[in-house]
Amino acid sequence: MSGSKLPTQAILRWVKRQPPKVKAFLAVVAGMAALVFIRFIVHDHDNLFVAAEAVHAVGISVLIYKLTKEKTCAGLSLKSQDLTALFLAVRLYCSFVMEYDIHTLLDTATLASTLWVIYMMRFKLKSSYMEDKDNFVIYYVVLPCALLALLVHPSTSHNFFNRLCWAFCVYLEAVSVLPQLRLMQNTKIVEPFTAHYVFALGIARFLSCAHWVLQVLDTRGHLLTALGYGLWPSMVLLSEIVQTFILADFCYYYVKSLLGGQLVLRLPSGVV
User: Fold this and answer.
1) Which of 173, 248, 257, 270 has the most CB within a 10 Å radius?
2) pTM attached to this predicted model
3) Distance between start and end Cα atoms, the chain
4) Mean pLDDT value across residues 124-153
5) Distance separating alpha carbons of residues 269 and 272, to the nearest angstrom
């Protein structure tokens, strides 16, 4: 084992022994430190959102490699892919009718790739799909997101239906990975390509969250006013933070497994 890994593993072992409240505090401190670091090295914080989309695309590419080369979709949640396609389709619609920009092109490519993954899982590789383990009820997230969109949505001058769609895709994106995390918790063992994909999602979510937080700081809060009034601006930020923290625990075990030289990630009970 190289000497550079020894201090890192010692730190990870120390963190593992800490109570949940201390772990949560350390995660917040680490996140804030990362935000400060990013703020100083990235001058145009709009690039963070593009970077988040690029990392998500890398994650999708890992899935495509897994499906084409290994000819199996074991360990992947079809329900998470369905939710991802749904929020991307809604966000793409909003992009076309509200603000056509580079994000529209990125979302189009990501949606096309996601639909291809869904096609492969539903038809070509259906025999390897772990349907019994993929038991998350997606209505538990779709319906609450739709209801929340009705209650809290942008107060901009756009069409009312478009504003509802905007809010719905923001909320749904925040929880779209939950079926994938449930499947991994059911199996307890996560093979490498699936772990790489979920870790890429975690990095993408953090970059997206960093984009919003730093934009608010750069504009001294004026960005919140630009998003509208009422609870909506706060809900946008909260959704970004929720996405990040949902995946934070998994990313911790991923890094720990990677540093330990383990090819297969084993999740302890209660991670998801």
Assistant:
1) 173
2) 0.81
3) 30
4) 94
5) 8
